[in-house]
Amino acid sequence: MKEKNQKAPTDLLKRIVSELERAKKPAGFCTQGSFDFDGVQISIKGVGRLRPPFRVADARILSQVAVQAPYGKKTETLVDTNVRDTLEIRADIVTYSEQLHEEMKGVLANIATQLHLDHDRLECELYKLLIYTKGGFFLPHRDSEKKPGMVATLIVVLPSKFNGGDLLVQHDGRFSRFAFDAARSQTKAEYVAFFADCQHEVKKVTSGIRLCLAYNLMLKPKSKSVETKGNKKSDARLRQAIEGWIAKRAEKPMVFALEHLYTSDGLVPSLLKGADSQLFAELVSVAEDVQCKLHFGQVSRHLCQYADDGSFQYGRRGRRRPSVDYSELNIGEVYDDEIVIDGWKDSHGKSIRLPSLACDEQQLISITPVEKWVPTEQDYEGYTGNAGNTLDRWYHKSAIALWPSSQQFNIIAQMGIKYAIEQFLKLVAKREKLKGEKRESTTAECIQLAGAILQRWPDRTYVDPSLDDKESLHAKFAEAVPTLENLELIGGFLRTVAQRDRHLTLIQFIQIALKVKGGDAIFPLLKDLLDYEQPPNEYGIVFHEGLAERDALWLCKLTQSKVFGKTTEVATLIDIAIYKTRALLVKLEKKDYRSRSGPLTSAWLQLIRACIHNGDEKRLQNLLGLSSEFPQSFDLRAVQVPAAIKLKAWSAKADAERSEAFVDWTEAIRKQLERDTEIKPQLPTDQARRAVTDCKCEYCDLLSQFLRDPQQSQIEIKAAERDRRHLEHILQSKRLDVTSKQVRMGNRYALQFTKTTDSYHRELKRYEADLKLITSLKAT
Asked: How many of the other CB atoms lie within 10 Å of CB of 62?
């Protein structure tokens, strides 16, 4: 079954990719051409007029106004001739003859055709005049978008004599190299245009001078009358393939990877490049036909895998790790593969505030197979002796996400429970202001979103209950759900929290639910909530059994409200709570290893209050009787006395009637304490001490004789290290009135034991504490 589930998405992906490839028109990432340069003149302010072909001597003239070209590194602009050794001249001091202006019109027309750009909107602007002399180069880099609407870079290499200086352009695993032979002919100018996200480099010039004009290629904004909606009929086969996905994986968005990587400003319909523009047009049409929402986003993927370069067995400590040839690594097991989409925009390219959305590899739809994506960054941690042998790779792609409008609320829930609850609360607040059909429609949306949230409710079974603040989003969600007055949703909420959220406060939820739906409708749901038993894990261990304190709290509150109108229904709920409490106590008393539940004192206390409120003497007596039936769980001083004091203070404050069972229980506790304090502990009159060791070894025998001796206060016992540790363990575990320290006796070690009066002081302290407890119990 598992193999079929994995295969289905793969088949869907293949079908959609196949239809995209069929509908796609060829589109390149760069283009080249040449034009005659005879008669073209270039003038530079401060230098004068230059005529082609250009010579090395021209470089000396140009250097009068040129500066060392910088490069960009993230947000910085740096000058480093180890990265870029180029001179540049500002565009504002460069002018050229009208002939070149005319030639550029033809160049732009050709570029628009080859790169599938809108000819009417494509324009160029001179950016810099670049000068590469002998030794000049520029390491691999990408151009930033220097102007609004910039989509590409145009390089026009002017006629001159030079060698080297080849331009290498790479994109998405494809590669082009340009040697500019036409420019070297010294009669023609040669140009190359490439999209701004393409990585490119200029190889070192080995001789001569290489002059080029660098242009920014931009697309003018579209006319406002042009809509982003599809204005053509959708491709039938592509539509059918996408409908197949929706039929089987509607809750999973389709993420179409674009061929080019866009900045936030560039990721808009009007600036999409080549095949990306075609893809957008196709998807807009399909989205309209199959009622899907379309968004732009940025995909980030971090992939961590085992990797081995085969050298760890031969490495030597202290040697610097050589540079890594990533293509030679043997790749193995995947340790982590995290894919998220963020940087959201709507179908018009307008930024919208949405959280990141996690997705899996099987949601990524790409003509270039995902496994062949080129990483934007990678890091190999070789063998270090302690860890390593991992390859981390980061991938970034711009994308178009598509999901059915009917799944909008499921997608919101996938974006995180916090965001989903915030949207739910806003929708509920909006509903309160509406009337009639609009209110009914919004109510249906609220119920649908709440259901999607419950499907993805986090497992909060193990959270610290103190963290569940009443003002938390989870609590606010719980209070809002019953206001929708939908019994099915109320039941679904209670089932969800029973299974995944043991600590969420339910008092407000239940009070509102009872008010809007009545006791007859809510009682069966509360019974199911209390009846629920947490299943054991794969090892048969149950971490949370018995009555949750949260449930004891609302049950106690329920006995005060009288909302059911019948105490018998409340009594039924109390019976379930007592049964669960007793069942857990049996396990705790037997020290059942399969139970990992904590103490239930607080829940027990709340149940006692519930019985007192409900006037139920029989069940109260049953509850109080658990304290004597399970003494290990209800220590007299640690549990029973504090509980009795709290209940006495509470009953006085709440004006609750004093029940006979409660009075008898507190009286029994007081009498037990009085019996324990009949005789005040006395300081020992001799050196005899309690000698319970439960061990018959010769060393414990010597220790026992010493403890029973009424005269001897100190002794040394020679023993090996193992036996000395054994004796010290006996002292600690049995809390004997003796201290020990290691001493040297000749060539051996011994333990020196000295008697104390610790037991007396402990008993005296407890005696004095018991007297205070008796006083507290007597107080009214």
From this structure: 21
Tokens matching residue 285: 């049409």
Q: Which two tokens stand for residue 248?
A: 């089987």
Tokens of 203: 């190889």
Can you tell me the distance from the alpha carbon of 331 to that of 380, in angstroms, rounded to the nearest whole number? 11
The number of angstroms, rounded, from the C-alpha of 390 to the middle of its chain's C-alpha atoms is 22
**pLDDT of amino acid 24:** 67
Cis peptide, bond prior to residue 375, ω within 30 of zero? no
DSSP β-bridge partners for residue 300: 340, 396
Q: How far apart are CA 431 and CA 435, in angstroms?
A: 8
Beta-sheet pairing, 364-365 with 254-257:
parallel
- The SS3 call for residue 658 is coil
Q: Give pTM, 2 decimals.
A: 0.81
Residue spans of beta strands (DSSP E) within 346-450: 357-359, 364-365, 377-381, 390-404
Q: How far apart are CA 435 and CA 457, in angstroms?
A: 30
pLDDT digits (tens, 9 = 90+) for 255-307: 999 999 999 999 999 999 888 988 999 999 999 999 999 999 999 999 999 98
Question: 211 - beta bridge partners?
Answer: 131
Alpha-carbon gap, residue 643 to 657, rounded angstroms = 17
Contact residues for 599 (Cβ-Cβ < 8 A; gap 6+): 633
Asked whether the CA dihedral 161, 162, 167, 168 is positive or negative, the reply is positive
- 192 φ, ψ to 5°? -135, 130
The helix (H) or strand (E) run that includes residue 588 is helix 567-590
Using CA atoms, how far apart are residues 291 and 567, in angstroms rounded to an integer? 53
Tokens representing 528? 């199911």
